[in-house]
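[agent] plan:
  1. take the single chain provided in the ticket
  2. run structure prediction with default settings
  3. attach structure tokens to the ticket
  4. add a short note for the reviewer (M.T.)
[agent] executing step 1
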Amino acid sequence: MNILLLCPTTEAEQQQVAQKCGFTSYTELVNKMRILIGAYGYLACWGRPDIRFAAYFLARFQARPSARHWQLTQRLLRYLSHTIDLKLTFDPTKSKYDLATLRLPDEHDLYGMVDSNFTNADDTKSTTGYLFWFYGCPIVCESKKQRCVTNSTSEAELIAASLATRRCKYLRRLLQDDFHIKLKRTPIGEDNQGCIHISRGGGDFTKSRHTRNADSYVYQEQVLNKTIDLRYITSADNISDIFTKALGPIIYKKLRNRLMRHDDSYEENFTMIAIEENSEK
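[agent] step 2 finished; step 3 output follows
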């Protein structure tokens, strides 16, 4: 069901929604929604990036919420109450598994991942999600609807990679110029081979000429300036996928635990990757 169709359009429908949610007026419901979503947005920015997509998605409907939106707001509140112990930690040793999925040694202080979903069930515009770590802790997370309508998955991924590259350029300038930290080329994980191929100057120009604006920025920083390294990563290991769409409970918990460094499964996964690489050799 299209969630946009659930939004009330008349005063009678608004009053019906308010009564269904236990409020005396629709204005009271809207104010309560905005208070909760504002709190969720604050948490998503400063300590709970695992709820970022949910908080920003609900924010799209805060002006005209439906009973379904109110239910989702309450569900997010219950989720936070059951996961109150989750927290961000700075632990450089935990970055080994993330970098192993990128086929890199643990020698990069700054690295990131980027992803995009190609449209969705309720809108024709895709959603960008990216994430950057510094010393094993997320420092920048983003979940944002793209401004334009894309024509393919690769184009949506290129736009997402372009936005992530801009943020990466800012982070590199901040760390190098202001904090005098020496950085290597920043690896960024991407799960779309077409996006990576086009960003390195490949692809059929007749089929991708409409994406040159999004592609040129990534190409400039990767091939010309050599500040980033867009590398392939499987979708199952792309943690930024958590910022682009609603995931199933199993996949969500796996990516969330890696994002929040919640359990000790990283050493086991890192060992499995090492075993697979040795067997390939």
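[agent] step 4 note for reviewer: The two ends are 49 Å apart (CA to CA).
[agent] ticket updated
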